[in-house]
Here is the input.
Amino acid sequence: MNRRVNMSLDVTQVLLSAQSADGTTRKLAEESLKQFQEQNLPGFLFSLSSELANEEKPEESRRLAGLILKNALDAKEQHRKNELFQRWLALDANVKAQIKALLLQTLSSPAASTRSTSSQVIAKVAGIEIPQKQWPDLIGSLLSNIHQVQPNVKQATLETLGYLCEEVSPEAVDQDQVNKILTAVVQGMNASEGNSDVRLAATRALYNALGFAQVNFSNDMERDYIMRVVCEATQSPEVKIRQAAFECLVAISSTYYDKLATYMQDIFNITAKAVRGDEESVALQAIEFWSSICDEEIDILDEYSSEFTADSDVPCYYFIKQALPALVPMLLETLLKQEEDQDLDEGAWNLAMAGGTCLGLVARTVGDDIVPLVMPFVEESITKPDWRHREAATYAFGSILEGPSADKLAPLVNVALNFMLSALVKDPSNHVKDTTAWTLGRIFEFLHGSAVETAPIITSENCQQILTVLLQSMKDVPNVAEKACGALYFLAQGYVDAGSASPLAPFFQDIVQSLLSVTHREDAGESRLRTAAYETLNEVVRCSIEETGPIVMQLVPVIMLELHQTLEAGKLSTDEREKRSELQGLLCGCLQVIIQKLGGMESTKYSFSQYTDQMMELFLRVFACRNATVHEEAMLAIGALAYAAGPNFSKYMAQFYQYLEMGLQNFEEYQVCAITVGVVGDLCRALEDKILPFCDGIMTQLLKDLSSNQLHRSVKPPIFSCFGDISLAIGENFEKYLIYAMPMLQSAADLSAHTASADDELLDYTNQLRNGILEAYSGILQGFKSSPKTQLLMPYAPHILHFLDALYNGKDMDDTVMKTAIGVLGDLADTLGVHAGPMINQSISSKKFLEECLASDDPLIKESADWAMIAISRVASG
Amino acid sequence: MAPPHRPYKRPAISDQQRRRDLALQAQSSRRADAQARARSLANSLLSPSSAETAEGDSERDHEPTVTDVATAASKLRGSDARRWFARHIMLPEWMADAPPHLASDWHVFARPAGKRCLVVSCNGMTISRVRNGSILHRFPSALPNGSKRDISGPASSYSILDCIFHEPDETYYIIDMICWRGYSLYDCTAEFRFFWVNSKLMETTAGDPPSTYHRYRFSVVPIYECTLEGLEAAYSGSTPYMKDGLLFYNKHVHYQAGITPLALVWKDEACSQYIIDTDSKGQVPSEQHVVLELQEDGKLATSDDPPVVFGSLDNEFIQKSNLRPGNLLRFAFRDERVKLVDGKMEISELQFVGRPNRARAFADSHSKALFQYAARHAPLRIEDLVASIQSNHMEVKSTDVEMQG
Here is the structure.
């Protein structure tokens, strides 16, 4: 049916119908809106903005009009977002001008929700146009609103400025305009502003505008002024303004850490007052300020201790160390403000939780110094009759286990351990038991294992007792049992290097049985218990030793049966299906770990192969149920299986291939795609040239993935590496893909050779990309080695050398790239031989780059360089 | 606006993320393994895997490869292993005449007295085999992967050294390097290999005195450019070991199995105790001896490639003495029966003496017979070598003069 949309369509009516309680009416309305949009976009957008601006229309239709407008300008998904941006920019300039005028006009509306909607739409338009310099007078006209008398216009304008700062990046706005925006915002926050709505809007706007204030924060006078106004706002009679002001302080603590020294005493006083006396929403932000300072100092101190101290331009001011004597007692007080059943509520976040979390961060920041400040509280409170005291004491103790040295903590833990074990069994409070089990987990995580240099906390004497208590607690209420599983997880992890000496080995069967029983508990769905039990089972298996291999082998049919049962279930509700998927994910994950373990041990790898047929059949059936997480888990398990099975895996390829292709096509759930690409690598190594019949399909898909702008960028480096895997597996048969793969590699190499940005994250990604490209080159060169078709690669050699030289000159590659790059130089010489000799000898890579790598302290770089040196010397000596 | 809740009582990383990370780690380390394997295998793919099966289709086909060595070292047992090793060692010719351009193209060093052997370290074990392939020692060493304690990188990556075991100080003196941590040095020049020996040995503690995990010390030999000074140093300089002649290596020679004229051995009484062959009682026989191999057609040939024929046996004698082709036989001949034609020895009357020591794997080479012959009559003296270097020196100088003119 090709119905022309009537231009005089009653937009108001359709918008109201689209919110109707009646499904049919709603559907019809949505359909007409969709058609209107498809057939006449400018008219559609104009109608919506007119609706939004029209004071005579009902608030409901105006609000929906604004919402649809907003969604027509932005989307979460990057690809869609770009499309919408382009679509807006391509609209007729007059229509856009009219729409924008209507939006600005709406800021004066008496209806608060309409003003707010309009603010958001204006910010979206600004987000598209300001970087293109297309709405130069926007900020000017907004600022002129500030001087209007009506508070509602002022409030809406400040809100708009806040959203605008959120949408637009600071580089796109001139400093002059930034100054004006900040002046307007900070004035609006000032105590002299009589209207609290205006003051709240201004405070929230400042939160977003802080990123624009780099220059202003470097100016002492301006910074003092901003800080004074923010601090004053924390004392406002309005709770929302106080909360917003503290949120500003939190943002300032991370953005302008190095500018805070002169304000810290005042800020401490303000936060202490809020933590002790203000409403929870405000107090939580006050604590968050200190957590955020800890984050900063932990990062800086980390940077100090790493080799690259030269890169760290922010010095540590040791704010936490200085505040310690006052900060710790304040945090300890918060621990007593627990809520009765907070452990059962997954979304809970209260003062005690925030305070304990902050205490943990403080411990990581200052290390040993925190111990004498916390221990008296622990010792005094842990035996008190009120459960709140016992729980707070335990939580405090557990919180400081990461950070201080093992030397400092070990004597305390040795004393505490028995107390904790008995509390876990005997304490009448579930809350205390929960925290006790968690604390035991922390003890095992940080003070147990071969990396800890003090005398072991766990000995063959107390190990059995610990296990007995943990296995018993795994039968306790779900939240306690879940923490007990967590403790067992770290207990097992600590023995990963213990070998036959592992004291868990004699109890291995009991441990596995107990964990399986937990997974079968009726209430295992609560408190994440089933997940915790499987995760712990995985770790126990990962850390197990050759001697307990037969017990792990017995697990195989058990877990396979469970997986089989999930596949047999009949018709399920949405909720049940979700639960089933979760369970399948856990079971596939568990099988993955078991496959790796059994396939990796001499004594089990042959007998394990009896299960591979059945296992593969199950995995294939799992793929038939559509769920991304499960696919990812099954894919990981199959990768492990392929590695364990080696060339024998080829018999499954015909059936498995369709799912492999499906995984490679999964743009939306890019994790699945990434894992699948990794599995292609596993298959290449397992099957070698037997993968050849599938390579056309795989390569087509990989090339499609690379040219798609929908695929998450993090998948691209592994795809390049995968080219190398394929070539290494099929050798000169890679020939037919060269004309597609090489140009892609070349253009990616050109793009990644130079980084324009000093952005760490981007540099990190660029280095991953470089590494992927280099691994591709390496694999392709080695794949062709010894083939009569080697000369096909000659034309690409100059570019590869050029890329290597560019990387060397760029000076911003990381160690991994350096290692791979110098290896490629060797591969080039090795594969192309004397023909490439003169070319190689002319490159910087073969001289200074190689010398630098030969002198490297990194053994992997040195090893690659040795290889390159030998390969080149062969070429040079003919 | 409000910051998200921080993780509470939960490990920061989920087990799923951990599994994902571990899988990625495993994949990338397997990729590195595959890559490393490709790199060390590279040569074997270039030339057919064994010298015997492929004849002449590549000029490199008699060069052994890392895989050959690796496979042999791990899989071959007993006599196969012995024969294999024996065939893969590089053997110098005896120096009958000083080669030209000694100073510019050659290295010289004093050969330690002792047993020539190949030392292979891999999988936590070190094995040395002497020239006939039999095992000299099986021991832990500080070479890469040479002891259980010192496994780094893939345990199966091999290092193969060409050594002389010097009994008095129980030290392996390294005279060449064939393979290091899986990287083949076969087709690298001697100059590069010598450089490599020096720099790589320093990276290990193999030069340390013996200990539990390092049964024998390894040591480098001082190698000189064969200038007047270098020759003098090698010839008269003091060494921690007893000398047995001088070895000359052409700088450009690749490591190649068998006898090569690009490596030369020279001895005189001043630098060797063993200048003239002795009989089983340690006496210098009145007639020169030579060990030759019996061919299919009854001819008696040297171990050279191609062999040099010194005579033949008739069928009757072969059958009567129960000899088979491939047997090594010792002969004596009188000096006056030797003629030198274009630098080649011709012997007109060989007298059968008997079978040589069973440990012997090879016939003598032509150059050895020639050197022995010369040593009994008109030996090549150190003065001759010095003169040769000096004359080369003059040549270079005179060229310079011409060019200026």
Remarks:
- The first strand of chain B starts at residue 90 and ends at 94.
- The interface with chain A takes residues 1-3, 5-9, 11, 14-16, 19-20, 23-24, 26-28, 30-31, 34-35, 38-39, 42, 45-46, 152-153, 180-181, 183-185, 187-189, 192, 196, 252, 254 of chain B (CB under 8 Å).
